[in-house]
Design a protein that fits this description.
Elements (H helix, E strand, L loop, with lengths): L5 E6 L10 E4 L3 E4 L4 E4 L2 H7 L21 H6 L3 E2 L3 E7 L5 E8 L3 E6 L19 E8 L2 H11 L18 E6 L7 H4 L1
Parallel strand pairs: 9-10
Antiparallel strand pairs: 1-2, 2-3, 3-4, 5-6, 6-7, 7-8
């Protein structure tokens, strides 16, 4: 019996009109992570992917360095990054680091540790002394988006090496991310 693997990801879904939530599998079925529906692959997908198990093509990706996330924001969120690998820490309700999500080139992800019992990405920043917190909280659908949103909304320069609560006269807006995409958002909360 062969393994069923996704052979095409980030495809458009005909059912919910998502532009990139559909995955096509080597056995001919599809799954949409936005509307949580299964279906049959269109023939053009199937014919392109029948023998895909032996060839893995890299997905187009944006190098981490071109995202201009400052060292200050990466340090605040305890993220370690290079263009080849980005490590996002995950914590439990007590603020203990219990898992990591690792993003490899080509938007490949893997998790290590007790990921299923972790809380929203970035929740540990709520306990840090970063200044007066705003009543606003932003929640994104990705760790990189959370870092970018924090940097933008709080006016942190892409060149900032350290984050200091004294630099900002306005209240700090905290930003977190759900763990695994839109389909798991309710469970994550």
């Amino acid at each position: 019996m062969s393994d069923v693997v996704a052979v095409k990801t980030h495809q458009p879904c005909d059912k919910c009109e998502s532009s990139d939530a559909l995955a096509v599998y080597n056995d001919g079925h599809t799954y949409c992570f936005s509307c949580n529906t299964y279906g049959e692959a269109r023939e053009d997908y199937v014919s392109e992917t029948r023998d895909f198990r032996t060839i893995k093509q890299p997905k187009p990706d944006t190098p981490w360095s071109s995202r201009n996330i400052s060292r200050a924001v990466q340090d605040l969120y305890e993220v370690t990054a290079s263009d080849l690998r980005v490590v996002f820490p995950y914590f439990d309700n007590d603020g203990m680091r219990i898992a990591t999500k690792i993003r490899l080139q080509g938007k490949e992800f893997k998790t290590e540790g007790d990921f299923k019992n972790s809380v929203l990405f970035g929740s540990q920043t709520l306990g840090k002394d970063v200044g007066v917190s705003s009543d606003t909280l932003i929640v994104t659908e990705g760790e990189a988006d959370a870092l970018a949103a924090f940097q933008m909304v709080n006016g942190v320069s892409p060149d900032a090496q350290t984050y200091s609560k004294g630099r900002h006269s306005s209240k700090i807006v905290h930003v977190m991310s759900i763990r695994s995409g839109q389909a798991s958002a309710e469970r994550d909360f």
